Amino acid sequence: MSRGDSHEVIVIGAGASGLAAATALHAAGRDTLCLEARDRVGGRLLSVPAADPGRTLDLGATWFWEGEERVRKLATGGGVEIFAQHLAGDTLFQDVTGTRRFQGNLIDVPSYRFAAGAQSLASALAAALPQDGLRLGTPVTAVQADSSDGLELRTPTGTLRAEHVVLALPPALAVERIDFGDAFPAELARLARATPVWMGAVAKVVARYPSAFWRREGLAGAASSRIGPLQEIHDMSGPGGRSAALFGFAHASVVGPGFAQAVTAQLTQLFGPAAASPEALHVQDWSAEHWTAPSTVQHLADYSLFGHHLYQRPALGGRLHWASTETATEYAGHIEGALAAGERAAQAVLSSTVPSR
Predict the structure, then answer these.
(1) Residue 25 has pLDDT above 60, yes or no
(2) What is the pLDDT of residues 44-79, one digit of tens each?
(3) Residue 168 is part of which domain span?
(4) Is the per-residue pLDDT at 258 higher than 60?
(5) Both 127 and 187 in a single domain?
(6) Which of 16, 71, 327, 350 is a Cys-bridge partner for 311, taking CB atoms 3.0 to 4.6 Å apart?
(7) What phi-psi label fits residue 191: left (phi over 0), alpha (psi between -120 and 50 degrees) or beta?
(8) Taking a C-beta distance cutoff of 8 angstroms, is the pair 169, 176 a contact?
(9) CA-to-CA distance for 75 and 81, rounded, in angstroms?
């Protein structure tokens, strides 16, 4: 076996939590390799180019809020420009009786966004890793104890070994896609299979327009609907209203033939004829993302399992550490929670008393 097949730590997943763990471990001098199944970093941080140069539209995580200092520190240190979410204007409410307008923004709260998109946070973290410290397009198919008391990881391109593994995937996805054999206690295996995936059963829709026309009409771009398909809508325009966009959430179960047309019709009913012809309409169905959602994702609904105490304990003889926003004890489901979970996992590795090989 070549030296390159073995590492002190292997992190599975290059989303916010995995990259936070990998960069912390690398900074501490640990031989760390981060493996990512996709051909990009970011996980549920996904940004696509908008019309204006340097601007993007977020198809995944979008905001952070006051008090989420890990995100703010990462953005500041990584040169990621942030700006305040647009709040000014009135709110629209839609039900079977029609559309009503209410004074003021009754939906949005003060928050912040990223001028170059939330995925730029992941790019900033990845830039801190050495070139050979990150491998894309490398899904892990199995993890098991090896003969030397470490862990063996199988991938489509070969086998790797590590003293510690950081599992930075939603637990339900991890136990469905990775073969751990019977290494997990029954209670932990049941917990992982039952834990919801944040955004996993959601479709996010972004409609881009030539201008933020709703602002000229005194609207905040905020709307709530009881008839859908979008259940809530927000302004996603960039700084100064460019690039102009509205976005909304729908349950993934309603996505299918005619969904895009239904969305456009709904936006037109709410915001008027100017909403009928978006320059672009992006539909990101996270339930259809193979590397985000397990097959059971639409049936997982017990969010009280987030941050469960079993996720705070290393598994597999103290060598496997949980890290994803679902396992965070604070800000679970937020980018802040992902960063916190990655930090916790890295610290658990650094303070581990499990003997090295």
Answers:
(1) yes
(2) 999 999 988 888 999 999 999 999 999 999 999 999
(3) 1-45+118-195+293-357
(4) yes
(5) yes
(6) 327
(7) alpha
(8) no
(9) 7
